[in-house]
Amino acid sequence: MPKCFSIEKNIGCDVILWALAIIALSLGISALPAQGLEVLIDNPSAEEGLILPRGYRSYVTPGSNAALRWEQGVARSGTRSLYIANRGPHTGAWLAGSFPVIPGMRYRCGAFVRMSEAEGKTCVSVRILDDTGKFIRLVPGRPLSGTHDWSRIWVEFTAPPNSASFYLVLGNSGGERGEVWFDDLWVEDDLELIIKGGLRNLRKALSDYKETREAFSIVPNPLNHAEERKLIARTAGFQKLVETTDFNPRLSTERRRKIFTDWFPLSRYLDLLRRYHCLVAIYTKAQKVYSQNLPFIVGWESPMRRVFLKDLPVEVLVSRSHQISLFKGEVGAVQIVLIPLKRRLQEVTVFASDLVSGQGRIAANAIEVHPVGFVRIDSPATRDPYPTEHEYRGWWPDPLLENFPFEVEAGASQPVWIAIRVPRKASPGIYRSRISIKPANTDAVEVELVVKVWDYLFPHSWHFANVLSFYEQFAHQLYGAHWTTGLKRKFLEFLLERRINLTSIYGGQPFSEEELRNAAKAGQNTFIVTTLAGTNASEHPYFTPSQQKQAEEVLDRWTPFFARLGVSNRSWAYGFDERPLKAVQDIQTASKWLKDKYQIKLLTTVRDDSYGMRTGISGTVGAFCPYVDEYDSEQAAATRARGSQVWWYITDWSIEQPAIRSRLFGWMTFKAKADGFLHWVLNRWVNNQGPLSRRILQEAWNPRLDGVHPSSSGMLVYPGEDGPLSSIRLENFRQGIQDYDLLKEAERLLSQLETSGKKNSATSRSLRRVVSIGDDFIHDPLDYSSDPKVVEEHREALAAALLAAKRDLATP
User: Fold this and answer.
1) Is the dihedral of CA 524, 525, 531, 537 positive or negative?
2) Among 508, 584, 635, 678, which is most exposed with the fewest C-beta within 10 angstroms?
3) pLDDT tens digit string along 116-153?
4) What HEC string does 670-696 produce?
5) pLDDT in tens, 502-517
6) DSSP 491-555
7) What CA–CA distance (Å, rounded) separates 251 from 40?
8) How far is CA 9 from CA 109, 141, 728, in A?
9) Beta partners for 531?
């Protein structure tokens, strides 16, 4: 089955999504269909009706050829089903029902489908409407293709704030042959799961709080006595409401709405109580570890998890020391978390000593200290189906600030990012550094950072092909006259240090010859010479004579330079950004022109889900670049066999998504065998007036930017006063690039072992295991392990296999 997904996420309303997200987090709600509260559907099996089944209507996209009928004799239940034979090029579908929604409620809905050699994408989608019947959003589900007996397919979504109803779309798009039958629709919401589970958790948290608050008076109380009494009374009243409600499919929308909205005044306390219990557990552990009362607690956390300053639960490892493992020449990170329980910390300074081992010393300047800054998100704008760490309204950790004295309020949990760069010439072994945390108003606390250096040199060559546009116009707009050649150089060097290519898909060639020479010297593996057919063009033709002439001016100027630089084989023109299939002829013309006249290739995000196989342009186009959720591994392999690459790209990379997702992009790209990774822009600083300040809370910064995409999706590097400031997302992505390059190194060594007659050796088997990423780790871009320990375990196995291969290849 092809792996291809494309679903939009919706914005939650300020009141309701709090309730949903808090309980979803506490219950660990799965992305797979849970057993929710069924919503009553009229005629779900399409058995009743006259000419058409009651409650259903047929739809064929204008210009498409599809046959739809109310089928007799083929059914999963009863005797009838909904039949589609789509011959393309677009969509044939059945539209089902009209279902009221509660803004903020999580819904799952779907049907059973039977398929016979069906091409294209068969899925259940929803179209969401407001109270006037105006269309708001389409949310497509995970598609199927091929042949399947009756299989359950579904779509999940959270109803946006202004939504009133939705209807189902049961359809096939892009198919040219095959047959599809739909039957047995279903709709359910999360009301019962959220309310009953949340109420149980809240009562337990309150009970535990009453038992511990006196014994742990050092931990700040989230409630005063009056608030506690009020919460207990409200909880009891709400429990009576729940107990007198019969949760069944006939429960009215009005009753569901009342229960859901009444829950909010209670639900906001759940995370406060959970945080309190976390702090009690951290304090208890610290007493055991240190056997004394420290002025504040220092904990450790993975760089793949966010640590919130307040309001939300915090879990850290309390230990005098912590170890991470790195290759020679690699960069790694860990977070220390400062938690003062009773006293505010003033003018905190954090610094590290040299890393020392029996084999040598790594200077302290190889360790970077970055207090984590926070930006305020009051209206999370995440998109289905991407999970979020929380639907929290408040201060989100993301920017990594330059080291400076900072303050930490009592009861807060302030993360500090510690980055370690291992020199390429470092000796292997165990290194130790003292991390000193010194507030101005109390005693210092020291912890020990342990770095294990593996005896393997991180590959010098860049393998992870990427295009993450740096758009200089945004820099000019924000910095104004302060945007100088020297400041630009800092940003470009910052990107190259992270193996991020200096590229832009906007306009001509924005980089100077000197900048590009430096990039080539550093190892850059992808160059964008120019962009064809500006990204705002939307009408046919898509490659006009005037556009060709404009591109020629850039190509005539720059392709000789890239040839002299020796990177023509890594040079591309980008074009036809997300264009429809009717652009195919123009794409073919442009591709041949680029190849014949300039010896460079075209990289395009054209909406061709066959990657040129059905449209006849595979092998002509240099690289197709579908959206990650729509990437089809089997189709991509067929296109590569014709001589074209297949990359993938993302647009939604918001702050609210799990930090580990950024780390796993490298692993996902490797597993999918995608030839490269594209993201539209990384410095979209619009709607901000100046750089970040030296403050933990960045009150003047607007992370929503202009609201075009979810919070800071096009903004991974922040503007600092003196240069670039990284982000939690970008640093995780950086480490994921390193992981990718190490996996490619494992592939290279495996090939050497196989050609040297050691195909069946234990080392070869170990290498095969590490490059064969299991579905339990990463299944697809939406389904992956969120446990940082799983990543570390895979890295340990990768290191062991690389070290064994190094020994084996050194042995005749």
Assistant:
1) negative
2) 508
3) 999 888 999 999 999 999 998 888 888 888 899 999 99
4) HHHCCCCEEECCCECCCCCCCCCCCCC
5) 999 998 899 999 999 9
6) HHHHHHHTT-----SSSS--S-HHHHHHHHHHT---EEEEEES-TT--SS-SS-HHHHHHHHHHH
7) 8
8) 16, 12, 22
9) 574
Cβ neighbours around 785 below 10 Å, total: 17
- What is the 3 state secondary structure string of 200-268? HHHHHHHHHHHHHCCCCCCCCCCCCHHHHHHHHHHHHHHHHHHHCCCCCCCCCHHHHHHHHHHHHHHHH
Q: Beta strands of 585-676 (E only): which ranges?
A: 601-604, 623-624, 645-646, 648-650
538 vs 274 pLDDT, higher one: 274
Contact call for residues 724 and 402 (beta carbons, < 8 A)? no
Q: What is the pLDDT of residue 463?
A: 98
Residue 25 banded pLDDT, cuts 50, 70, 90: very low
Quickly list DSSP for 742-773: HHHHHHHHHHHHHHTT-TTSHHHHHHHHHHS-
Can you point out the beta strands (E) in 45-90? 56-60, 66-72, 80-86
* Integer angstrom CA distances of residue 335 from 369, 514, 644: 10, 37, 42
The tokens of 690 are what?
Answer: 């100046």
Three-class DSSP labels, 388-401: CCCCCCEEEEEEEC
Element housing 562 (H / E): helix 545-565
Q: Is the pLDDT of residue 586 over 50?
A: yes
Three-state SS string over 277-335 comes to HHHHHHHHHHHHHHCCCCCCEEEEECCCCCCCCCCCCCCCECCCEEEEEEEECCEEEEE
Q: What is the pTM of this model?
A: 0.90
Per the CB < 8 A criterion, the answer to whether 322 and 352 are in contact is no
